[in-house]
Amino acid sequence: MALLPILRYPDPRLHTKAAPVSVVDDAIRTLVADMAETMYEAPGIGLAATQVNVHKRIIAIDISEDKSQLQVFINPEILTHDGECESEEGCLSVPGIYERVRRNHRVRVRALNLDGQVFETEAEGLLAVCLQHEIDHLEGIVFVEHLSRLKRFRIKSKLAKQARITA
Ligand code: NI
């Protein structure tokens, strides 16, 4: 397994639309293992392949307290969504920034598992928010793009300042 470098907003590669996975093979399983290791190490509760500069429709999520419940969604699709919620989100590609975002409270998602089999799951609350956030990444959307232009501008300046300090 290997830790993968995470792209940082406003890296333009974060705006790439990911392509569907055609075959779930060992190369995909290795990538997922690397993504999971990268997510746990960061640490974060979700990671999309887009964030490690692999433009394939794969996401890894683990919202459990003890980080023991990895959930993998390959070619995820939102089938239905309802309800509204607003919660504070962060992102490994936007370090140190937390902002409230409106999302659907409940989603039903269809995806492939690591064996290439189709499954469907219904999620609500944190898992539903996390799925919407990660599926956005596969579309090339970073959560700050749900915020006002002014907020986004402030975030960009803050991140540029951080980059200068850590450089
Ligand atoms: Ni993110």
Give an overview in words:
- The structure is a single chain.
- The protein is of the alpha+beta class.
- The protein is globular, with a radius of gyration of 15 Å.
- It is built from 3 helices and 7 strands.
- The model has no long low-confidence stretch (mean pLDDT 96).
- Strand 6 (106-112) and strand 7 form a beta hairpin.
- The two termini are 27 Å apart.
- Bound molecules: nickel (II) ion.
Q: What portion of residues belong to β-strands?
A: 25-35%
Radius of gyration: 15 Å
Q: Could you give the order of the helices and strands?
A: HEEEEEEEHH
Low-confidence stretches: none
Distance between the amino and carboxyl termini: 27 Å
Sheet of most strands:
5 strands, antiparallel
Strand order of the largest sheet: 1-2-3-6-7
Mean pLDDT: 96
Q: Level of helix content?
A: 25-40%
Count of DSSP helices?
A: 3
Query: Structural class, from helix and strand content?
Result: alpha+beta
In short:
The chain is an alpha+beta fold and 167 residues long. The protein is 28% helix and 26% strand.
Layout of SSEs?
Layout: H1 26-41, E1 46-48, E2 58-61, E3 71-82, E4 85-89, E5 99-103, E6 106-112, E7 118-124, H2 126-138, H3 149-166
Antiparallel strand pairs: 1-2, 2-3, 3-6, 4-5, 6-7
The structure holds nickel (II) ion.
Residues 91-93, 133, 137 line the site of nickel (II) ion.
Task: Offer a few descriptive terms.
167 residues, binds nickel (II) ion, 5-stranded antiparallel beta sheet, 3 helices, alpha+beta, 26% strand
